[in-house]
Amino acid sequence: MNIIFGPVNSRRFGKSLGIDLSPSKKQCNFDCLYCELDPAKTMDEYEDIISVEEIMNALNSSLQNHQDIDALTVTANGEPTLYPYLSELMDEINRVKGSIKTLILSNAAKIDDEKTQEALMKFDTVKLSLDCATSRCLKRLDRSHDGIDVEKIKKGMLEFKKKFYNPLILEILMVKTINDSDEEIEALSSYLLELKPTRVDIGTIDRPPAYKVEALSYEELRKISLKFDSSLPIYIASRKKVTAKPSYYSQEDILETLKKRPLTQEDIDVLFDSKSKNNFQVLMNEKKIDKLDCGGYLFYIKP
Ligand code: SF4
Question: Which residues line ligand 1 at a C-beta cut-off of 6 Å?
Answer without folding.
Answer: 28, 30-32, 35, 37, 78-79, 107
